[in-house]
């Protein structure tokens, strides 16, 4: 299950509580999971039972105690075995928006304009997150580079969609102009 490996990967860069894991997973849009509490804690119980993580209780004066999880050597071996053996997946192209656009008529240009606005907002948001290096593990330069490139992949995807939407809109406007010339 992907969430288990995501948790192992995050714990490899440092010990965290379940709440800390949730915050990071919610913010990192390139991770394939949204940060549902129940899923995190179920996964942590499984990982504990399998000996892939261990925990300790951290007592705090300013609030309730919390469990801090860390990856075990077996957890590290399992994570790296998965990373080495799992085949990469191609991007997903089945999008509701493309179906809407396929069957749109006069509203197609307006749909594209709305889509462009959403893309620009996401692009700006993720550019800011990249600038702040949110969630980056800071263990070494190689790892920081990898995380920077993960964000760049996301930015490039949004930019590519924006370029495509603009090209599609131009083509639709041209068809509308050609139709009105006749």
UniProtKB/TrEMBL annotation:
One Pfam family it belongs to: PadR
Domain (Transcription regulator PadR N-terminal) ranges: 7-80
InterPro entries: Tscrpt_reg_PadR_N, WH-like_DNA-bd_sf, WH_DNA-bd_sf
Top-level taxonomic group: Bacteria
Protein name: PadR family transcriptional regulator
């Amino acid at each position: 299950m992907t969430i288990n490996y995501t948790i192992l990967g995050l714990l490899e860069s440092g010990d965290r509580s379940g709440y800390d894991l949730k915050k990071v997973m919610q913010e990192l849009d390139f991770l394939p999971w949204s940060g549902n509490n129940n899923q995190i804690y179920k996964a942590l119980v499984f990982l504990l039972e399998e000996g892939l993580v261990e925990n300790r209780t951290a007592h705090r004066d300013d609030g309730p105690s919390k469990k801090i999880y860390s990856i075990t050597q077996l957890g590290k071996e399992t994570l790296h075995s998965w990373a080495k053996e799992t085949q990469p997946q191609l991007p997903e192209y089945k999008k509701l928006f493309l179906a809407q656009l396929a069957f749109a008529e006069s509203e197609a240009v307006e749909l594209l304009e709305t889509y462009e606005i959403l893309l620009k907002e996401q692009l700006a948001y993720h550019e800011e997150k990249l600038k702040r290096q949110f969630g980056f593990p800071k263990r070494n330069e190689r790892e920081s580079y990898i995380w920077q490139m993960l964000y760049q992949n996301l930015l490039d995807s949004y930019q590519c969609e924006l370029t495509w939407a603009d090209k599609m809109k131009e083509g639709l406007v041209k068809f509308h102009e050609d139709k009105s010339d006749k």
